[in-house]
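Input (Putative divalent cation transporting (Ptype) ATPase):
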Amino acid sequence: MLELAVILEFFLERYLEGFIILVLLLFNAILGFFEETQAQKTLAALQSKLAVNASVFRDHSWSIVSASILVPGDIVRITMGSVVPADIVLLEGQLLLDVSLLTGESVPKEVGTGESGYSGSLVRRGEALAKVMSTGVHTRFGKTIQLVKTAYVESTEQKAILQVVRNLTFVNGAIFFFVMGADHSIPVTEVLPLLLTILLASIPVALPATFTLAASFGARLLAGKGALLTRLSSLEEAATMDILCADKTGTLTKNELKLIAVVPFGKASGDDVLKMAAMASNDGGQDPVDLAICNEAARLNIHMDRSRLTQFVPFDPQTKTAKAIWTDESGEVISIEKGAVRAILNECAFSEDALIKAEKWQSEGFRVLAVSMEKLGLSSVEGLVVLTDPARDDSSKLIQELSLLGIRTVLVTGDAPKTALHLAREVGISGELYPRQTISENDSPGSYGVFAGVLPEDKFNLVKVFQKAGHIVGMCGDGANDAPALSQSQMGISVLTATDVAKSAAGIVLTRPGLEGIVETVLEGRRIFQRIQTYTLNSIVKKVVTVLFLAIGLLVTHHAVLTPLLMVIILLTGDFLTMSLSTDNVEGSKRPNVWNVQGLTITGGILSFIFLTFSTTILFLGVKAFHLSLGSIRSLAFLTLVIGNQATIYAIRERGPSGNSLPGRWLILSSVVDVLIALVLAHFGVLMKPLSNQIVFVVFLGAFLYMIILYRLKIVIFNRFLMQ
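Output:
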């Protein structure tokens, strides 16, 4: 519609007005282009993760090539510290793979001969020969890229703008054709200018720019609080979010194993068991289990003379144990093993008590290893060590604060169900465990609170399922496996330690340790929602009143009481100066907001009737009491709409009784400028006929009385039609 207004302006040789509207169109187009490029950044970051090298056996020799030219059937060598270049099956050797990038599992996966490994996994330990099974976009990691390409969610803000513009166009168009049919005395030469004036009056020209300005203002505030916006719409969606899907590993947890308990048996003490576990660990490797045990031993000042270590056998996925041979001070040879509980118990005198205690810890989601010692040919279970990926210090606080704000949090992880359930209960996430590990778009998540063992496509589908049910969904994650869900959600959040892939897919990137920035984003989003809701409501009132006022003026005077030039001035003084509402001091709601366009329309209609009553009264006074000429009536109409609009803003800027918060300084300044421009133009006759002091006084007095009446009525109107 703005394009049509530009064409009409230039056709009527009104070049200044046409140029102003053209600038607005370009501004909105630039904003749209910025949003489009964000998706391309996500894809580029994902594809860069595939840009790794591989050692491949071709033409009877080994060579280093780009992983992008690998083909199924190639034989590759995988070594510690490298990234698995494709989906593979091991031919010989063994690997400890960190698969948190793909599945979110906090504990690395042991892979042996005949077992599969996936592209993008990090090799923590071991070396192997493997056969390439899938490459590029056909790998499990490659499928993540395809999901990001298909991720799309319609902004509730965009839908609201379109519905508001549609409603205004329909109402104002109907009014125009009614008036044209009712009054046949309008000169033909005035029909096209009148059409242009109504068209300009109908379009909320600055509405998209106001949304962007409000979000930009909030983004600057949040940047100082540890939340960086990469997609402005995410901040606006934060106000309406009612479900947050939170990843486990690296998001709600620290993504580092920590030893939390030692359970000794027999005569051994806790320190003895921990020392033996450390003796059967590699303190210089990358195995997170060994590092957790050695770090805890060092913290407790438990030391050992590693010069007495004669042999160390790393964890073997076949035996599920690691083994170390030591000589003690007396020269005796001792063998210490740590590993899976049943594997250790089967090599010693089986202990039912040890098994019961281990299973109790395991049922609560912890990882449990048994430690045994063999000396003088006798083997005995010495104790258990218990490890976990601990929750962040502020995870429980986040869940509680979001709950108070009306937002339900669900846990979505690739980790084991028991581990996920334990963390959920620890941080305060309610709801039962979803019974299946795969999620399709046709599933119903119901009131389930924990989704465990899921893959990237399942997280992606879960977000879509919630959205299909009418929820506004946030997603918080840190890995590439979270990228599709981050892109699909209305509010994607990546934590400080997230991968580049996750950060580029998210709309909000936390720049400080912890999760505090999430709550700050929600609170700021709700303040922004109230600001733009006020602007939108004011736009509806202003546009409807302007067109109705034109219609009434046309029926009374048989002429247009506003010219296209005066309408453009109203656009500048009204639409653009009132964009300062985007920085107003307001209080956000305590519950998620909803774009209730129907409620906005009804509320706007009622407020329009009150505004129209005021403006029509002033118009009749000008025609009947002051007997003004057509030029002076147009000046009076211009001044009445400008001053009445300012009265409307200050009466409705708060949802409750006014006075809870003072207007922002930019709002006050813009109001002063708006009123002064209108007063100077109308009083001194610039671009219009001048008005006397008496008439100007009547307009201001009437606007003041109108504002008092509107202030008294607004709470009843808002509570009945607008508030959720």
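The first strand starts at residue 53 and ends at 58.
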